[in-house]
Amino acid sequence: MSRAAHPPAREQLPVHKINELCALILKCGYSAPTRALINPLLDLLAGGKFDLKQNFNIKDPNWILLILKLLPDLPDNLQLELWNILSVVLQRSLLNIHKCRQLKLIDNCLEHLTKTKSERVAGYIALVIEILAGYNLTIQELKAILFYLYKTEHSTDWAPHAILLVKVLSNLPGFIQPDVFFNFSGAPGAVSLMLMCACVRACVHVVCVCGMVHVPCSYECVNVYSSGVLGVLGWSCKGVCECGDKLHVLSLPPSQAITLPPLAKWPGQAGFTFSTWIRIEKTIEFQREYYKPVVYWFRTGKGMGYSAHLVGSTLVLETAGKGTKKTHTCAVEFAFQSHHWYMLTVAYVHNRLKNSEVMCYVDGILSSTGEVVLPTTDDVYDKCFLGTSPTGSQDTTFQGQMTAVYVFKEALGPDVVKTLHKLGSSYKSRFRFEAECDVALTTNEKKLLFDGSLADSVLFSYNAKAMEGQLLYETSPLENVAFFVHSPHASVLQGVEPVVTTPFQSVLHSLGGIQALFPLIAQLDLPQSLSHTVDYTLSAKLLSLLLNIARSSNSYLQHLVQMNALNLINHLLKKVSPLHLCSELVGCLFNFMSYLSDAPNGAQLLQQMIEQLLFDGSLWVGANAHVQNLLYGQLSTQFCSGPLGTTGLNLRDLVGVGQMLYILKENYSLTTSGEEEAERLVAVRPFLLKIIKKFVTQGKGMRPQEMESIVSYLSVVQEEKNMSDVLGFLLELLFESCDTVTKMFEHANGLKAAVKLIACFSEELTLNAIKLIGRVLHHSSQKHRLHLIQTMGLFAVVKEKLLSAGQPFSVPMFNTLYEILVNCPSKTIVAPHFIALDLAHDITFPDILAVMVELVTNLPPMASQKPADVDIWMRMQLLSYVTSLCTQNNSNCKALLQLREWQHWFLVLADHANASETDYQSLQDMLFRLFHVVLMYSFQEELEGFAVWVKTCAALHAYSVSKMAASGVTEPESSLEWSFTMPPLPEGDLPPSDQPYDPETPHHTSLPISEEEEHCPEGRGGATEWEELASHDSEHATFVFRDEEGGSGENLRVQRSTSSKGGGTQSDPTSGDQDEGGMQGGGSSEGVGGVEGVASSSTQASLKPWKIHTIQQLMSARSMAAARKMPRFRWSRFNLRLLEDLLQSLQMCVAKWNNGTMNRKTSVTLAEYVNDPHRTIKANITNFLALIVDNMIALNGGLKHLLTQSVLHRGGDPKQLPTIVEDSCSASLHRSIEGDLTKVQSLLQSCVELEEAIVLGGGGGGGGGAGTPMGGGGGGGGGPVLFGEDGG
């Protein structure tokens, strides 16, 4: 169609002559070719002096084959340099790759790869293969690569440098390159005169100078007549066509461009958009000052219109109006680099009320904007070119590549441009159907592209695949006839050629798709041929290859889902060594997972990846600990916090707590593995629990079925090693979550599982299980706590489990039980020191004291300490803590009084058989300090607090009796029965007529006791009656005499009860008033037992004889026999010490009131204080003193005997009273009181003084005498009134 004045072309080297030339060179004495031979060959390759910076374009690619023939005979350093030069030449120019595509260089490279032993040379060979295969790959070439990698029947290792080829295949899907594009060679153009005939025949059209469009009838017609006028200088030359038509001189189009047909008009009111992908080939021409290659040129014959050209790396947009002064330029603020593909979109926006704009987008992103004036003209746009200007000069010829070109009749918005970029550089369709693109798009993006509006706005489009010869068909969806003068098709001139390549994905699809790569995974255990070692990172490269293919193509993504490829990959990985599960493999999986999370069509494959690959414990359990920690650590931190990207998938729903616990139980069991493997699994299990924690803490919190799964795990698993971390995790979860989680734990039978774990041999498990129970109690209501402790016997079961386990009673266990005592549980085990005492704590669960005392006294101590020292240490600490709590807070004393046998527990606690004298004395001091604190509280605050004194004395007596029985020590027979003689009654106080009574006959009332024992579970005592205190092995009886009238002696009631080992009471069925036989408890809510064998002589004196006789009739013979076995009550040194401490404290309180120390901040006097009806101290002290005096009278022979001795010795020396009393007692004081009688006298004197100060009001009407510590003074009426009214 045109002729150009080209220099004579250099003849190319024939391919069949290469072997002959190579043999000739080697025969000429170049057995070892050097650089002196290679440099001329490179010059021949470049068609001149070869230079990597200026002259590197390949003119004759056949010289490459000759160089490759000579390579095996070259030294390694020269081979390395040549392969490096070849890779650089191919990388710098797509034209060089295009020229080498017919040489089958990949086969040559594979042959050289097999022979070379140098890793560096092999690396450059693989790089050349990657460049060639990334540009275009045939089926035969891919087969050659795969057969090179496949294992043969006789091979025992990989092919040489196979890893490099795997890496090459892995990189091929990442090549971003269109499969069809125009290649602009950029060779210098030549002026050609084209003559056309006027007849309209089928051929390429051209435009005449006058604007007429002519289509030649044949190419010969043009060529013949054009050659005749080449030498004519003028433009008026005419000729005649063979058909007879008159020929005209046509315009001079450039020789290397795409000439577009003339357009009758150009879109103006709605603007227009130009869009294509370009790649710039920067050669030495770019260094010229005036080199401005044109990308597009849309103008009229008068120069009005639009154009874009490059100046260096900057794109300049020009808009030309009428006259040269109305040209507007806009430089795009983006640097276009060579050898890179860019999507260039230029949108011209027409505005009516302001200046029009031009917007330039690069890769879908707005890079620059500018104000322009859009030209308005009715002229024909007959100067429309792609890749050059109308002059066709060398300075305006574009050199590079260009894909399908679209021109739209409107200015596209940013969203549409961004979506167009997402289609990729290979898109060349009509925006009609979604299946036209192999890219995953969102619903909104599909609507922008394929709703029909974008297809209707296409003015014209051209792509290299719609080309036949030099005719380029227009491929827009609509025939825009109104815009074209004649035919819409364009012509491709010399120097522009279409290039059609085949990408790796298409070739692989022809060989069966991804399935063709699966055999490579099965041979991962083969060693490398050169190093003879197994490369454990090869699995990551193969998996990266598979996933990169799926990432680059939506069809492959769906193919993986349909064939369930990830399950097959899992199966193949399980068959090879677990060492192939490396950190690089984990990183590859996470990268692909992140991609699928945001991919529109990735939800289904992502679900399969999670279920079949990432959370398959049987696959990953064999990997080393670092890989597993990396896997589960990233899963817990990056992917377990919520939905995965835009897919909406949630690992909590896909995997769940149940599946994670199954993995822990089946795959990460510490008991089914060796010692080394167990250490590795121990390091991994915390990450699995971290994932579970992420699951249960997201969203609305834990679900009931998740808690049931955790509790079921603890209930089913029997190995303590496998339960420790899960139990600790559950404990941490309960402490960090709200009350709802604790309720879920209890509803899921969590307490049952916790009680089961208490009996474990591991102390950590035991303590954590106890902490679980403490946490449940902490969040339970008071009613539910009572149900668990009393009805269900929770603490009794805990004690039984702890005793059955036989673990040493250690400091951590002490601290854990103490936390439950004060209702302050913590999630950490406090060790090795005792927990810090907080005096602000309240004793919430005093029943746990029974468990602690039982454990201290029965469990062995820690093996690391001396048994005796540790035991005493524990006892002292417990006594110290309880005493401190009761001292600082009255509510703690009240809580202690609620217990049935608290005195007995602490008596046992303070009695250590192997303790030294010093330690034993310390224990006793701490015990009596506790008793003293509780007694003082009960006297001041409890309604019938004096009963605590009675019970404490009874507990001391019972414990001493039990110890004597256990040691085989018995008292004299005369002391085994405690009886008293009724004094003669005054006249008029006679029994009923039907019950005769002899006043001269002494009547003895024995205290009956039942020998039957009944077990009573531990719990709180009744709040409305006194019950006996617990005994150990001997039977005890309690008789409580209660005067319902408050001391008149009338309506005396008798209660008889027996104690058992469990501390319960049983009323005698023969008692007449069983329902009303107990003393009604007042302020104290404690179940109290009466003093054993203590009878009030003053009460006896007030009894009517017939009532005593009635009581005797109620006693059975069996009960009387049992009573005679009961040792009498004795005032031991412990009782006296307790009495002494109590009296001294009461005296000190009264003294402080007297000297004003107690009432500094208030004007209330002591009398007002004790007479306050809301206070109980006066009533308690009155009853307490009455009990003391009555007991002393009974021990000294009764009231009658004492009165007699008082009359006989009236006026004697008071100092002789002890001797007089001792000599005259019917029952020796030495048998009933341990200690000197001087202390007894002092205590009795203190009782008298206390009674004067509190009961009688003090100092009112008594005789003179020395002052007392209670504030009474000598002289009548001289003392202050402490309580009550004056006088006494």
Number of helices: 49
Main sheet specs: 9 strands, antiparallel
Shape: elongated
Overall pLDDT confidence: 75
Q: What structural class do the secondary elements suggest?
A: alpha+beta
Please state roughly what percent of the residues sit in beta strands, choosing from under 5%, 5-15%, 15-25%, 25-35%, 35-45% or over 45%.
5-15%
Counting DSSP E segments of at least 2 residues, the number of strands comes to 26
Question: How far apart are the first and last residues' alpha carbons, in Å?
Answer: 149 Å
Radius of gyration, whole Å? 55 Å
What order do the helices and strands come in, and which of them pair?
Blueprint: H1 18-27, H2 35-46, H3 62-70, H4 76-92, H5 94-100, H6 105-115, H7 119-135, H8 139-149, H9 162-171, E1 180-184, E2 195-196, E3 206-207, E4 213-214, H10 219-227, E5 239-240, E6 246-249, E7 258-259, E8 272-280, E9 294-299, E10 305-311, E11 314-320, E12 327-331, E13 341-349, E14 356-362, E15 365-372, E16 383-386, E17 400-402, E18 405-408, H11 414-423, H12 443-450, H13 453-456, E19 458-462, E20 467-468, E21 471-472, E22 490-492, E23 496-500, H14 504-510, H15 518-522, H16 538-552, H17 554-562, H18 565-575, H19 583-598, H20 603-614, H21 617-620, H22 625-639, H23 651-654, H24 656-666, H25 675-697, H26 704-716, H27 721-736, H28 739-747, H29 750-758, H30 763-779, H31 782-791, H32 794-805, H33 811-821, H34 848-858, H35 867-888, H36 890-897, H37 902-910, H38 917-941, H39 946-967, E24 1037-1043, E25 1052-1059, E26 1065-1067, H40 1097-1102, H41 1105-1114, H42 1117-1123, H43 1133-1155, H44 1166-1170, H45 1177-1195, H46 1199-1208, H47 1217-1224, H48 1229-1232, H49 1237-1255
Antiparallel strand pairs: 1-17, 1-23, 2-6, 3-4, 5-6, 7-16, 7-22, 8-13, 8-17, 8-18, 9-10, 9-16, 10-11, 11-12, 13-14, 14-15, 18-19, 20-21, 21-22, 24-25, 25-26
Helix pairs in contact: 1-3, 2-3, 4-5, 4-7, 6-7, 7-9, 9-16, 16-17, 16-19, 18-20, 19-20, 19-22, 22-25, 24-25, 24-26, 25-27, 26-29, 27-30, 29-30, 30-33, 32-34, 33-34, 34-35, 34-37, 35-36, 35-38, 36-38, 37-38, 37-39, 38-39, 38-43, 38-45, 39-45, 43-49, 45-49
